[in-house]
Amino acid sequence: MLLIGAKFAEIVKIGEIIEDGLKTGKIARVATRTESLRLLKKKREDVTSISYVSMKKDTSKNLHFTMVILKLHKIHIQLLIPNHVIKLHLRVTKVHILFTKLHRHITKIPTHITKLHQLIVQISSQVTKLHLHITKIPLLATELRNT
Length: 147
Description:
Blueprint: H1 8-24, H2 34-56, H3 63-80, H4 93-146
Helix pairs in contact: 2-3
């Protein structure tokens, strides 16, 4: 290897360069044997299933929080395993709950508007009746004076 007589700082720099290359995809990991690929895949599945099963036994009262922790733990395990494809299936239940509450309130608005309209119609009819009575007062006053 080239790193046998190198200084520690140089080794760290080379390690960082390799790590950046792996992250960006400029360097690809290639297994030389199919056996090593199969063993690596089996190891990934074992680690994921063991950690998932041990986390699933949580008897927390807050089920939503437990499920989020489960998914984040699973993602963390997947990040630790090299060349593992991450599949994110995170639910946005809190947002969905907020939208359903908002939808419920918005759907009630037309009924409130119709009730308000009915009240306005009732008040306007009472105002017109009151207006008729007020306009009759001078006529009644003149009739009373004439008698």
